[in-house]
Write a structure and sequence with these properties.
Elements (H helix, E strand, L loop, with lengths): L3 H29 L5 H13 L22 E2 L4 E2 H10 L11
Antiparallel strand pairs: 1-2
Helix pairs in contact: 1-2
């Protein structure tokens, strides 16, 4: 089980990403548009730098929904390999059979 503080910090980052998503995409589009004057693109870059760092999608860490484990994460299932193995052993995942010999 991961530290609760780390899981909560990550959830806070997710909320910030959701909050600033439209503003961030607009500013990135302006900054990348080569048809606009350089001053306007530079101003967009400055406004982008003023946004909170944690509002960037790259700062969000994929974590297991059950345990909060950051490593061994399956995106499709949104859980770690260990949680997947335990649920598979208990027969809670349809079609998954854990082999044993």
């Amino acid at each position: 089980m991961a530290k609760t503080s780390m899981v909560e910090r990550n959830n806070k980052r997710r909320d910030l990403v959701k909050k600033y998503k439209t503003k961030r995409t607009r500013l990135k589009a302006v900054a990348a548009d080569r048809n606009l004057p350089a001053e306007e693109r530079f101003a967009a870059r400055l406004r982008l730098a003023e946004l909170p760092r944690n509002s960037s999608q790259t700062r969000v860490r994929n974590r297991c929904e059950l345990t909060g484990r950051p490593r061994g994460y399956y995106r499709k299932l949104k859980m770690s390999r260990i949680a997947l193995r335990e649920l598979g052993s208990q027969g809670l995942i349809p079609g998954m059979v854990k082999s044993s010999w």
